[in-house]
From TrEMBL:
Statement: the UniProt record of this protein carries the keyword Repeat: yes
Transmembrane segments: none
Keywords, sorted A to Z: Repeat, WD repeat
Name of the protein in its database record: WD repeat domain 49
4Fe-4S as UniProt keyword: no
C-alpha cells in the first residue's frame, strides 16, 4: 500500500474514474469539469491538497454571497428615555466597559449600560461661567488611555479621565484657530503608545495630533507645573506647532479652503486621513502620510452638491459617500476621476452611510427618514425602512450602527431611537455543537 505521507497525484482520466467509482453517482463528465476548475495552472494533474483547497474556497465564497444577500429582521423602533435637552452631537460605544456614551450640545454626557438603561448623566463643560454661550461639537473615546476628548465652540478640546467617577478634566488644549466640529481617534492595536487624534474645523482645516507615547502621557507636563495630579494642565496649540512636546507632533492641510469640515477619520490600512465637506470641489480629501510620517500627499474627489458623510470598508477598498444630490456613491480611494458605483433609490439627500462590515453591505439614511440597506456587490437595495419620527422641518440626525451587538441608533434632535436586529442564531441549522473535525461518506446510503 502507498505511504499515507506521500502526495498522490491524479490525471484527469484517473480522477474521473476514481470519483465515479468511489462516490457511485453522477456522470463522469461533471468530475472532469471539477478537475478543470481545480487545475487552474493546466498542469494535467491534481492532488488532494488542491482539491480540498478548491472545495473550501468555493464554500467560503458561497457563504460570503449568502451573507451579502441576507436581509436582517428588526424589532420595532424604540425611543430610549433620556435627559438631553438639546441636540445629541455624538453616540459611541466603549468596548472596555460595555457602556454607551451620548453627549448633547449643552454639554450633558449620558452614560448608558449595555442593557441601554440610562445610568448617569454628567455636565461636561469647559468653563462653567461660559455655559450659556458654550456648545459641545463632538466627542471621541481614547480607549487605550481611558479618556474621552470633547470639542467646544470656544476653540478648545478637553480631555477627561474615565477612570474617575467625577470625570475630571486632565488636559485642556486651547488656542485653536478655528472651532473644531468633528473628531476621530485611532490607536495602533499592536502598540497602544501610537495613536492619532484628527479633527476638522469651520475654517476648512484638517489637523492631526500624532501621539508617540500615549500610555505614558499625551502631553509633556512643564517643569513649572504644580504637583497636583488632579489639576488641569493647559496646553496652547502654538506650543504643539512649535514642537515643544516631544511625545507628539502635528500634521495638517487646508485643502478644503474655508468650507466646514463635516467629517474626518484616520484609516490605518490606507495610512491616510479622510475628510469631507458639503462643497462640490475637494468634497472628499485623502491626505496620505508619506514615508517620513511628517508630511501629506493629497488627493481629492469632486462631488456635485457635496456630501454629508462617508464611510470606508478596508476589505472592499471602497469609500461610500452620502450625497446631498440623493445619491450614494462608491469610490476606489486610488481613482479620483469617477465613482466605481452609484446607488440610486433615495428621494431626499442622504445624511449618513455606514458599512455593515461583516456582510459587506451598506446602510444609508436620508433626510426624509428612510433607511436603506444595500448589497454592495450587485449595487442593489435589499431593504427599505421608513422610520417614524416626529414631523419637523429643522432637525439634526445622527446615525450609529453597533455591529457587534446588532444595534442601530438614530438620534432625532434630543431624542435617541434604537433599531435592534432580531437574533439569527435560532434560525440557523447546526448539526454539531462543536467544530467538525472529520467527515466520512457512506456510498451505500449516499450520505
Amino acid at each position: 500500500s502507498p505511504d499515507p505521507r506521500e502526495t498522490i497525484c491524479m490525471s484527469r482520466e484517473e480522477f474521473m474514474h476514481k470519483m465515479t467509482e468511489t462516490v457511485g453517482w453522477g456522470p463522469a463528465e461533471e468530475y472532469g469539469e471539477l478537475f478543470d476548475k481545480v487545475d487552474v495552472a493546466r498542469e494535467g494533474f491534481i492532488n488532494w491538497d488542491k482539491l480540498t483547497s478548491f472545495i473550501l474556497l468555493s464554500l467560503y465564497e458561497k457563504d460570503a454571497r449568502t451573507k451579502a444577500t441576507v436581509v436582517p429582521q428588526w424589532k420595532d423602533l424604540e425611543f430610549l428615555p433620556g435627559k438631553h435637552k438639546d441636540t445629541i452631537q455624538k453616540i459611541l460605544f466603549l468596548k472596555s466597559s460595555g457602556h454607551y456614551l451620548t453627549i448633547s450640545k449643552e454639554g450633558l454626557l449620558g452614560i448608558w449600560g449595555e442593557n441601554l438603561k440610562l445610568q448617569e448623566t454628567l455636565p461636561i463643560t469647559s468653563d462653567a461661567t461660559k455655559l450659556k454661550h458654550l456648545w459641545v461639537t463632538c466627542l471621541v473615546s481614547l480607549e487605550n488611555v481611558n479618556k474621552i476628548a470633547v470639542a467646544f465652540t470656544s476653540k478648545e478640546i478637553c480631555f477627561y479621565d474615565l477612570l474617575s467617577k467625577e470625570f475630571p478634566c486632565q488636559y485642556k488644549l486651547q488656542g485653536l484657530k478655528g472651532t473644531p466640529i468633528c473628531m476621530d481617534y485611532w490607536c495602533d492595536p499592536l502598540d497602544a503608545n501610537e495613536s492619532i487624534l484628527s479633527f476638522g474645523d469651520i475654517t476648512g482645516k484638517v489637523q492631526a495630533i500624532v501621539f508617540t507615547a500615549a500610555l505614558i502621557s499625551l502631553f509633556e507636563r512643564p517643569a513649572s507645573a504644580c504637583d497636583d495630579k488632579e489639576a488641569t494642565m493647559t496646553i496652547n496649540w502654538a506650543e504643539l506647532l512649535s514642537g515643544c512636546h516631544r511625545c507628539c507632533h502635528i500634521l495638517g492641510h487646508k485643502l478644503h479652503r474655508g468650507d466646514w469640515v463635516r467629517q474626518v477619520t484616520y484609516n490605518a490600512s490606507l495610512d491616510a486621513i479622510i475628510s469631507s465637506t458639503t462643497s462640490n470641489t475637494n468634497t472628499v480629501v485623502l491626505a496620505w502620510r508619506e514615508k517620513s510620517k511628517k508630511h501629506f500627499k493629497i488627493t481629492s474627489f469632486d462631488i456635485a452638491q457635496g456630501v454629508h458623510a462617508f464611510d470606508y470598508h478596508s476589505r472592499l477598498n471602497l469609500i461610500a459617500t452620502a450625497g446631498i444630490n440623493n445619491k450614494v456613491c462608491l469610490w476606489n480611494p486610488y481613482v479620483v476621476s469617477k465613482p466605481v458605483g452609484v446607488l440610486w433609490g433615495h428621494s431626499a439627500s442622504v445624511i449618513a452611510v455606514q458599512f455593515f462590515a461583516e456582510r459587506k453591505q451598506l446602510f444609508s439614511f436620508s433626510r426624509d427618514k428612510v433607511l436603506r440597506l444595500w448589497d454592495t456587490q450587485h449595487q442593489l437595495s435589499i431593504q427599505r425602512i421608513a422610520c417614524s419620527f416626529p414631523k419637523s422641518q429643522d432637525f439634526r440626525c445622527l446615525f450609529h450602527f453597533d455591529e457587534a451587538h446588532g444595534r442601530l441608533f438614530i438620534s432625532f434632535n434630543n431624542q435617541l431611537a434604537l433599531l435592534a436586529m432580531e437574533s439569527e442564531a435560532n434560525n440557523r441549522v447546526r448539526s454539531h455543537q462543536k467544530p467538525v473535525t472529520c467527515i466520512l461518506y457512506n456510498s451505500l446510503l449516499k450520505q
